[in-house]
Amino acid sequence: MKDILRDIENKRILIWGYGREGKSTEAFLKDCAKPLSIDIYEGDREGIDEDKYDLIVKSPGIRMDEDDPKYTSQTQIFLEAYRDRIIGITGTKGKSTTSMLLYTVLSKCTDRPVLLLGNIGKPCLDSYREVTKDTIVVYEMSCHQLAHLTVSPHIAVFLNIYEEHLDYYDTLKRYFEAKAHIASNQKQSDIFYVGSNVPHIDTEAKVRVIDDGVDYGYELLIPGVHNRFNAEFVYRIATEVYGCDPNAVRKSLAEAKGLPHRLEYVCRKGEVTYYDDSISTIPEAAIGALKSIPDACTILLGGMDRGIDYSKLTDYIPAHPEYNYICMYASGRRIYDTGVISTLPNTYYEEDLKAAVKKAEEITDKGAIILSPASASYDHFKNFEERGDCFKGLIMIG
Q1: How many CA atoms lie within 13 A of 361 on its CB side?
Q2: Which residues pair with 330 in a beta bridge?
Q3: CA separation, residue 133 to residues 82, 190, 340 (Å)
Q4: How far apart are the first and last CA of the chain?
Q5: Sheet holding 12-16, edge to edge
Q6: Is residue 340 packed enough to be buried (19+ CB in 10 Å), middle (13-18) or exposed (0-12)?
Q7: What gap in Å lies between CA 126 and CA 2, rounded to an integer?
Q8: CA angle, corner 110, sides to 107 and 114, nearest 5?
Q9: Most C-beta atoms within 10 A of its C-beta, which of 28, 48, 78, 341?
Q10: Global confidence as pTM
Q11: Cα 354 from Cα 358, distance rounded (Å)
Q12: Three-class SS of residue 91?
């Protein structure tokens, strides 16, 4: 970290974006570095006088299409200091659950300190003082955090890739290119664990492919074949890289609890159970939710329409009449109006979540009602957490 601090000393620094990471960056600079000046800016790039600054720390989610050496990020700063201690985890789906499982297993099955940082909740620079030479950092990395990196973690995990964030990246190719930075700058001494649906990435690391078409058979509290796939990454890393006892790893996996809004069991009312899978923002996630809950009966679909391809879902619905499908909001309307779906007796359209929950309870006598929207939440909710909490609230007052 001393070399990184030396690079920051006596520099004129602009923090571009003042959300959670921006505020964390400011605290880090004031606490441990000695920059010449720190300015905050939240506008468009056109409003930045780049000549005034030696370094611009960009918050994730602010779009910048090209790489520019004057711009950096929290993730870049942290990796430059600690890459050899970091397990970076990305993927369209499952990265939070995998990060949580790996953190839980390594905390129980090694005698080393373990930190859980990044997109899962805690900005990395909040923990810079906690990192020692023995620390293992489990770092969940979003596409926005990865987009302009020139450094990759020692252990990289890329679970899967599906259409997502096309409102930001425009094409699946550009979205993949952002995520590919998790491995593209790895060294020969590094290891890259990658799911079989991820395209080839040029990397110097040792590559270990994990087949996503296999049910790995782990006993877990969290349901779904996809979570047993996530668990295989955890098992392989814990046993192969850190030498953990296989039986201890399996026991720890079996005891780990899931995260909120990820096929989360909510409650049971009479003969109906409710599950909150608000994290679901792609068709594959909604289909996976139906396959994961043995007594699935009714699913709530739809939210913000970001232009992703829903053909997997619109092909699935007519082929599976055993479920009820309630569509809502903009993407739900697009799903409902595709092909013959609106003519099917088990499909419905409601304007919003409140009406959708009401309809679900009217048509479901027993089995599970699942919120798994296959869509983003941002046109009507602050985030997927707020959407899930709203769903829970509607159930409790219903």
Answers
A1: 15
A2: none
A3: 9, 17, 60
A4: 54
A5: 37-41, 12-16, 55-58, 71-72
A6: exposed
A7: 16
A8: 40
A9: 78
A10: 0.92
A11: 6
A12: coil
In 3D, which of 125, 31, 8, 24 has the Cα closest to residue 40?
24
- For residue 42, CA distances in Å to 15, 22, 257 come to 8, 10, 38
Span 86-137, pLDDT tens digits: 999 999 999 999 999 999 999 999 999 999 999 987 899 999 989 999 999 9
Q: Which of 364, 148, 383, 334 is nearest to 274 (CA)?
A: 364
Q: CA angle, 309 as apex, 305 and 312 as ends, to 5°?
A: 120
Task: Tell me 381's DSSP state.
Answer: S
In whole angstroms, give the CA distance from residue 130 to residue 126: 9
The position carrying tokens 């030498």 is 243
Task: Report d(CA 234, CA 216) in Å as an integer.
Answer: 12
Mode of pairing for the β-strands spanning 324-328 and 347-350: parallel
- On the CB side of 317, CA atoms within 13 Å amount to 29
Residue holding tokens 């990289």? 156
In contact, 70 and 56? CB cutoff 8 Å = yes
The residues, any chain, with a CB within 8 Å of residue 20's CB and separated by 6 or more, are 123
Per-residue pLDDT in tens (0 to 9) along the chain, 398 residues: 557 788 888 999 999 999 999 999 999 999 988 899 999 999 999 999 999 999 999 999 899 988 999 999 999 999 999 999 999 999 999 999 999 999 999 999 999 999 999 998 789 999 998 999 999 999 999 999 999 999 999 999 999 999 988 888 889 999 999 999 999 999 999 999 999 999 999 999 999 999 999 999 999 999 999 999 999 999 999 999 999 999 999 999 999 998 999 999 999 999 999 999 999 999 999 999 999 999 999 999 999 999 999 999 999 999 999 999 999 999 999 999 999 999 999 999 999 999 999 999 999 999 999 999 999 999 899 999 999 999 999 998 76
CA 177 to chain centre: 16
Bridge partner list, 139: 88, 117
* DSSP characters over 195-250: ETTSPP---SSEEEEE-TTS------SS-SHHHHHHHHHHHHIIIIIS---HHHHH
Residue 389 tokens read as: 């909490």
